[in-house]
Amino acid sequence: MSYSERIAGWCARHPLWVIAFFLGASLVSIWGGTRHLGVEMDPVALLDPTLEWRANALDLRARFPHREDTIVAHVTGATPEAADQARIAFFEAMAARERWSVDSAGHADFFARHGLLFRDLDALQELADRLARAQPLIGSVVNDPSLVGFFQILRRVAEADAQQLPAWQPLLAQVTEVLQRIDEDGAPALSWQSLMLTEGEVATRPLLVVARPPAGMDKREALAQARQTLAEVRARAPQATIQLTGSIPLWIEEIDSALQGASVAGVIALFAVALLLGLGLRAWQLVLASMLTLIAGLAITLGFATLAVGRLNLISVGFAALFIGLAIDFAVHVGARFREERARLPESPTEVALGRALRGVGGALGLCAVSAAAAFFSFAPTSYDGVAELGIIGGAGMLIGWFGALTLLPACIALLPAVSPPQLSSTAVPERIARIAMLGVTHRGAVRWTVVALAVVAALLASQARFNYNPMHLKPKDSVALQTFESLLHTGPSPLHAQLLLIDDDQAAELAGRLTALPEVSRVVWLERFVPVQQEAKLAVLDDMQWSIGFSLPEERLQIMERPVAQVRTAMEDTTEALALRALPSTQLLAEAMQRWLERPRSAADWARLRLRLLGHLPAVLERLRQQLQAEPVHRSGLPPSLRTQWLDGEGHYRLQIEPAVHLFDNAALLAFVDAVSEVAPRATGAPMEYVYSSRTIIQAFVTAFALALAVITVLLLTLLGSAADTARALAPLLLGALLLVAAMVLTRLSFNFANVIVLPLLLGISVANGIHIIWRGRADGSVNPVASSAGRAVLVSVATTLASFVALWMSPHRGMSSIGALLGMGLVLQLLCTFVVLPALMRHGEGDRRPTS
Question: How high is the pLDDT of residue 702?
């Protein structure tokens, strides 16, 4: 009597003790898991911290911690003033929160006062010339800061000669838009900043506010506070758009997506598995017993994960769906063989049928469990903690699932009403599938040569497989934080840039120059860059501007005046007539818009709204211009402390920020940037460098894992099958299926990534079980086509249930988990075809002369 038969017999005789043990273990595991199991979704954080590039990254983060655990508000507006007002409002509201650290480039007094010194000298001179030409009009509106004064300016513009009029086209166009949309909620106001300081273009560049919560604050609480502030600011700034991104929102939205996807996948997988078990085993008692065994095994594996690892990660978070799909195989094979024994000996008691079933499949189950566990455990020695942890959890889960099939499953079957003896023909694989499997027997030579041809073609295609280096592509597409992050890639300086730590001032200057000269680099920002170049010449221009325009600016903040409606209406009518006399599209459009305004009855509130839309931003712009004209020379020693600490630590380490010339959203640009920067600065770190270095580390880890899994499974097969030929027969469909999967990925343009790279080693452990059961059955009864037996039916049902769990995983909104499910599903179907067609072609008639032992 085999060990499995003895264990199952004891459990069948003492079912209540067994069930009580598993119930208690399950409840304790669920309690511990829900209270103590953590989650880590950063794939880079799951790598060995002793790796050189990883140590460099950790050193940078330790020296400049203000860049970690941040919430970034991305602010845009219909006008620069609208965006800036919203940015300041959000900045001040977050800074008012206790112990929050908040920064916003452009908000500090330093940049407000010295901003013009950071312009190119030519651009500054051009601005000076433009403001000098506009001085008479600026003086007029300062002398009469009312709608009357403004319309008088428009009238002077309308009466200007043909050569001067093109310079005022931006003003005419903006006033026209304001009047056309005056009755719309949230319509833009006239942007004096764009007219005076950005050459007539309405600048909508993104503005950023970077907020860092107090140390120790829960990340969800921090994000909730930021979102509350965001809602309050949005209500006061309808012309601006504010979206949150940064490490905290990205992390929380990803983890929520992954956990939701894993939970939904687990529930869908459970229902799908139950349905397929019903169709395959055709006995409610077996379905119920199998599902109870599966759920108990899942709960106990959760408890093991809590004790042994303590957390789930980007990859192991989907272990529930994987466990459901894989561990159910043990119950399926026991149940299918049990039905066959009930059909052969209908009068025998349940305990006898269970013993005979375990005698028939127990050895194969043990070999499959050890093989699957070995495939998972092969992940453990790798330097990628993400898969090492999945390997530990998954390997233990396979052994737990196998143990449950030998103990809890027989106990449940024995306790439930007896299964009615089925017809023997219903225990085998359907006839149409058996005929497919017979192709390998009747056309052995053709199938073998086809296999060789397919293997060669697949190997050639597999050599073109690609890896997606960007972990942002794993996050859910509907993540607001991700969408905001991606918009930053296209609307401003790339948030993906390299970083470098240097302690020597001269070396920093020398490396900054060499890096800037690279075609892949747009600029290098470090502390020295905040000292403007050509200051003497720029200050001379500012002195000239003081004489040409400065005397026209008010010494204090301009106050917009309210004039009687009758005066304003008269001024507007006169201006409308003057504009209508000019036969230009811009003047005609503005005249028509002003005429439509005048034709409708207007209340005092309407005129007040018009005054706010046309003149509301003027005082702030004039005040900003007045401050910037008073700029003084800037020296490194005079830089604000809050700015210095972002680029220089207390030990004298400079931080260099190396910005790419193009957006690093595709592999080619990312690799070109990383390779170019690393050649000049091998110690450079930062997101792009970490993406590529971690990917290369992970690829190396999985090559090791695949080779180790293959070696361990080969040794196990050789040892337990006792035949090199049978070992080769079991492995051949396995390797062919793996090659076909990679080839299919190339043809469908799918890439490996940080998550789905586990698929190939995992498929080894999953799919080897199919071949083992077929070979085991063929050796047991010597049949020509063992696929046609109950073993083939069990393989078919187990693949269907496993495929259902993978499809459920594929439906996850998290793209990393979804890609795991998609590739595992594709691989499982290909492995099944290889097992059912290729394996019979490799087997020989008469294998039953060597019966397996348990």
Answer: 80
**CB-based contacts of 485: which residues, under 8 Å, 6+ apart?**
245, 250, 472, 495
pLDDT interval class at 66 (50, 70, 90): confident
Closest Cα partner for 313 from 825, 758, 831?
758
Place of tokens 């480039």: 105
Structure tokens at 206: 């993104």
Mean pLDDT, rounded, for 592-617? 90
| Calpha distance 175→614 (Å, rounded) | 7
Alpha-carbon distance of 854 to 852, in angstroms, equals 7
Is-contact 617 193, C-beta < 8 A? Answer: yes
Tokens 């996050």 correspond to: 475
Q: Which residues contact 358 (CB under 8 A, 6 or more apart)?
A: 2, 4, 5, 7, 8, 334, 406, 410
Taking the CA atoms of 48, 52, 57 and 59 in sequence, report the sign of the dihedral they define: positive
User: Side chain identity at 396, as an amino acid letter?
Assistant: A
**What single-letter DSSP state applies at residue 530?**
G
Sorted by sequence, the CB contacts under 8 Å of residue 785 that are 6+ apart come out as 434, 437, 438, 441, 840
**Residue found by looking up tokens 């139950």 in the block:** 274
Q: Residue 468: which residues within 8 A CB-CB, separation 6 or more?
A: 667, 751, 752, 753
Average pLDDT, the chain: 84
Looking up tokens 């107090």 gives: 214
Write the single-letter amino acid at 90.
Answer: F
Beta pairing class for 101-103 and 207-212: antiparallel
Cα–Cα distance measured from residue 379 to residue 382, given in angstroms and rounded to the nearest whole number: 6
3-state secondary structure at position 841: helix
Write down the residue that tokens 């349905």 correspond to: 275
Percent of the chain past pLDDT 70, that is, above it, reads 91
What angle do the packed helices 3-13 and 408-415 form, to 10 degrees? Answer: 40
Per-residue pLDDT tens over the stretch 83-98: 888 888 999 999 999 8
Token digits of residue 717:
């097969």
Distance of alpha carbon 760 from alpha carbon 751, whole angstroms: 13
